[in-house]
Amino acid sequence: MILRMACLVVMLLSVLPLAQAEETTSAIPQRELVVGVKDAPPFAVKGADGAWSGLSVELWRQVAKAENLKYRFVEQKDMPQLIRETAAGNLDIAIGAITVTVDREKVLDFTQTYYSTGTGIAVPVVSVMNWGTLRRAMTSFNFLQAIVALIGLTLGAGILVWLLERRQNEYFGGGVTKGISSSVWWSTLAMTQRSSAEKGPQTILGRFVATIWLVVSVITIAVFTAGVTSVLTTSQIQGTITGVSDLASVRVGTVKGTSSEGDLIRRKLKFQPYETARDGLKALRAGRLDAFVYDKPLLAWAIRQGYASRLKLLDISIEAQNYAFAVPPDSPLRKMLSIAILDTIQKEEWTEARIRYLGEDSLSSP
Description:
With 366 residues, the protein is α/β, with parallel strands linked by helices. It folds into 3 domains: 28-114 and 324-364, D-Maltodextrin-Binding Protein, domain 2, CATH 3.40.190.10; 133-238, Helix Hairpins; 241-313, Periplasmic binding protein-like II (D-Maltodextrin-Binding Protein, domain 2, 3-Layer(aba) Sandwich). The chain has 13 helices and 13 strands. The chain has helices at residues 2-27, 55-67, 79-87, 102-105, 131-138, 141-165, 176-191, 204-238, 259-266, 277-286, 296-306, 333-344, 348-358; strands spanning 33-37, 45-46, 52-53, 71-75, 93-95, 109-110, 115-124, 252-255, 272-274, 291-295, 311-313, 320-323, 326-327. Strands 7, 8, 9, 10, 11 and 12 form a 6-stranded mixed β-sheet that branches. It has a 3-stranded parallel β-sheet with strand order 4-1-5, sandwiched between helices. A two-stranded antiparallel sheet has the order 2-3. α2 crosses α12, α5 (131-138) packs across α8 and α6 (141-165) runs antiparallel to α8 (204-238).
């Protein structure tokens, strides 16, 4: 009796995994899947003939082929509609430039991430000096520090000469106020090489100090001039935006209803929303914006297509972004697709696709 029950237990344990596997397989729809997609180069690109291409589309085709899935694409007008229709179950899968965010995770599920990058910042290429660039350069910490140092040296040299010359030189005499003001004025003229010999120090020690100050002032002015030139040149090349903190004081734009908009809202930054990235980049090129924030690979693609001579992408990111497919909540497709994605992105075909759509630099991203 005990032996018979043991055999039954073994048989049940053997059959249970098979039953679970059959249940999971049967839960996956055998019908034609409805795949939602939104035009977002280079992840999803709609051709003139209506055919879809792009990095996300190519990955989906490889996954669908590996899993023998039948499907049809249904275009969505914008990202909010793509998310909304997927969350409602009207779409079986959503593909394109879809990033994983907290708000989206609350209403739908995501597959395994297939590409990671960040939110990028596009700015105009500065070719001429403008008032914004000049103001930023002149109020920078390094510039103000150099000004303070220069004034300090001038005051120090002037006071030292006054201490040495006030009793022997009428020009530096006449009371403390007059003497110090005259000596500081002399040191200023000496520094700029505008002093006259008859109004200079008369004592041996005073002339010795004056000689040292003249040499030091020449070097100081040379260093200061080089520093100012460097600051202005750097500002001219980089423009008025060098980091995320600069976005608080400039005109910023982004695409409404996207994760980039959410990034700006969380950072409490003011921005102008645009319907598409193209509209925003046109405004940036026309000078109506100082910076345009959007998904980094999408910005890089758009700039390469027609703005390379006027706009550039900064080598910084605001927030990390992970791209994945979206499915309705508790979709039976999620696990199967995640496994297929993990398998596909290890293959050579995926590496070639990333290079083709995103360039060699994309291989440095996870």
